[in-house]
Amino acid sequence: MGFLKEFKEFAMRGSVIDLAVGVIIGGAFGKIVSSLVDDIIMPPIGFVTGGVDFSNLKYIITEANEAAGVTEVAIKYGNFINVVIQFLIIAFCIFLVIKGLNSLKKKEEKAPSAPPAPTKEEVLLTEIRDILRSK
């Protein structure tokens, strides 16, 4: 029973739940970026490069031969290009979010706080100093 209780306490901690939410949102954001790259960014790039579809670019090492039962062996570098573009977009978005959060933190730090009121001892010492100066 102790193991299950420990696991329940671990799973219900705020940081674990926050991490789970982050992973779910990250997965959904990844799908959005994949669609952005595949459906919006890559078609114009393919048009500019003469109708090249990057996802189908590959270097064939061994041709497929159905009669001999040999499957194609290829290095699919076009799909790699798409994934790199997706990564750059996600990294840029995360950079913008972090930069925004950091700028908000800096504004909070710059807000001047009122100086604390002097303690009774400081007030008493100031009065003594003023009396000594006047003599």
Summarize the structure.
The protein has 135 residues and is mostly helical.
List the helices and strands and how they pair.
Layout: H1 2-11, H2 14-48, E1 59-62, E2 73-75, H3 77-110, H4 120-134
Helix pairs in contact: 2-3
Features:
mainly alpha, single chain, 2 strands, two-stranded antiparallel sheet, 5% strand, 4 helices
Main structural class: mainly alpha
Give the topology string: H per helix, E per strand: HHEEHH
What proportion of the residues is helical, as a percent range? 55-70%
Number of strands: 2
Low-pLDDT stretches: none
The proportion of residues in beta strands is: 5-15%
Distance between the termini: 79 Å
Overall shape:
elongated
Report on the structure:
The protein has 135 residues and is mostly helical. 70% of the residues lie in helices and 5% in strands. The protein is built from 4 helices and 2 strands; from the N terminus they run ααββαα. The protein has helices at 2-11, 14-48, 77-110, 120-134; strands at residues 59-62, 73-75. Strands 1-2 form a two-stranded antiparallel ribbon. α2 crosses α3 (77-110). The protein is elongated and about 115 Å long. The mean pLDDT is 81.
